[in-house]
Amino acid sequence: MKELSEMPNIEKALEEKLIILGITSPDDLSWVGSKEAFYRILLIFPQDACLNLLYSLEGAIRGEQWSLLKKEVRKDLASFYRLFN
């Protein structure tokens, strides 16, 4: 089975947090989605819940570096992020 840390943007520290939150595989992350995964992180690790983290999660699901996300995707994620800040 593929590890979360093998996905783009997912370093070991983030992988460990996701596992604590019950997201243990790339399939889990894809099923949960970037917004729900971000929300779970916000609840348990609020100090780590930044916009770049949300971009990173979405990029991981899409299989690309977060900096390559299309403008409209980033705009949608930024709107979601602002709900909590």
N/C terminus separation: 36 Å
The average pLDDT is: 97
Level-1 CATH class name: Mainly Alpha
CATH architecture: Orthogonal Bundle
Number of helices: 5
Shape label: globular
Question: CATH topology, what is it called?
Answer: DNA polymerase, domain 1
Portion of residues within helices: 55-70%
Q: Indicate how many domains the architecture comprises.
A: 1
DSSP, total strands: 0
Low-confidence stretches are none
CATH superfamily: 5' to 3' exonuclease, C-terminal subdomain
Description:
The longest helix has 12 residues, at 51-62. Helix 3 (34-44) packs antiparallel against helix 4 (51-62). This protein is mainly α. The protein is built from 5 helices and no strands. The chain starts with 11 loop residues before the first helix and ends with a helix.
Which short descriptors sum up this protein?
5 helices, 85 residues, globular, mainly alpha, DNA polymerase, domain 1
